[in-house]
Amino acid sequence: MDRRLTPANARAALTLLQGKVEAGRFTTGEAASLIAPVTDLLNQPEGTRDRQVLWGEAVTVIDRHKGWAFVQAAKDGYCGYLPETALGPLASPTHRVTAPATHLYDAPKVQARDLASLSLGSLVTVVEDGGKFARTPQGFIPAKHLRPLDQPLDDAAAVAELFIGTPYLWGGNSRFGLDCSGLVQAALTACGKACPGDSDLQQSVGTALADDAPVQRGDLLFWKGHVAMAVGPDRLIHANGHSMSVAYEGIADCIARVIAQEGRPVLARRRP
């Protein structure tokens, strides 16, 4: 089983795995939501970052031990460890942050004290709307930075372009740092399309394209360990270690550069 998607460790596992894995106990899990702006999802307590989860996203808590929680993210099924302090009760979000980043304020005015910085993709519960600021249980957010969950965006490439200049961060999922698969996941999720967390898993998204198929806006190009999104027939956008940022690059130039530097050809093309 893929460790990233298997809700089990040596101490506990979800009941759906009973008879399939060995664990100290089996549980139905505990529903919770993130109450920190961005939290690393680690491969083990005090370990390395696999991915990140954002404010308001739901997780199933499988195990708690010595201040750490082993969880499975509702967004993509990814499993890992995060600090218990990042978790709160399960929320019922109504809106998604669709600006590249925004602030949570303690009052509905631009001069108010900021309480937290939230990235595109964060989930919030709006309890009062109608003005320049939307009120949530935690504070106020500029209304123009939010969109109801039942009104997804319709241009994934345009969402990806909002992140231009964002610094590259391995395993990153926020405006504060992204990797290639984090960028693609953020763009597709904002458009209401389910998307796994890592580039190898994302090769199951949408439909496969022939090598000679004309490139359309939003198409995905995959190399071993990397994914990029087309913004036009000759240009792509990707979070990449070459520029250490989210940047545009010519498709032909990118393919030639990666082959020359790393010997990696394009492995697959998909249309979400």
From TrEMBL:
<dbReference type="Pfam" id="PF00877">
    <property type="entry name" value="NLPC_P60"/>
</dbReference>
<keyword id="KW-0788">Thiol protease</keyword>
<dbReference type="InterPro" id="IPR038765">
    <property type="entry name" value="Papain-like_cys_pep_sf"/>
</dbReference>
<dbReference type="GO" id="GO:0008234">
    <property type="term" value="F:cysteine-type peptidase activity"/>
</dbReference>
<comment type="similarity">
    <text>Belongs to the peptidase C40 family.</text>
</comment>
<dbReference type="Pfam" id="PF18348">
    <property type="entry name" value="SH3_16"/>
</dbReference>
<dbReference type="GO" id="GO:0006508">
    <property type="term" value="P:proteolysis"/>
</dbReference>
<dbReference type="InterPro" id="IPR051794">
    <property type="entry name" value="PG_Endopeptidase_C40"/>
</dbReference>
<protein>
    <submittedName>
        <fullName>C40 family peptidase</fullName>
    </submittedName>
</protein>
<feature type="domain" description="NlpC/P60">
    <location>
        <begin position="150"/>
        <end position="272"/>
    </location>
</feature>
<dbReference type="InterPro" id="IPR041382">
    <property type="entry name" value="SH3_16"/>
</dbReference>
<keyword id="KW-0645">Protease</keyword>
<keyword id="KW-0378">Hydrolase</keyword>
<dbReference type="InterPro" id="IPR000064">
    <property type="entry name" value="NLP_P60_dom"/>
</dbReference>
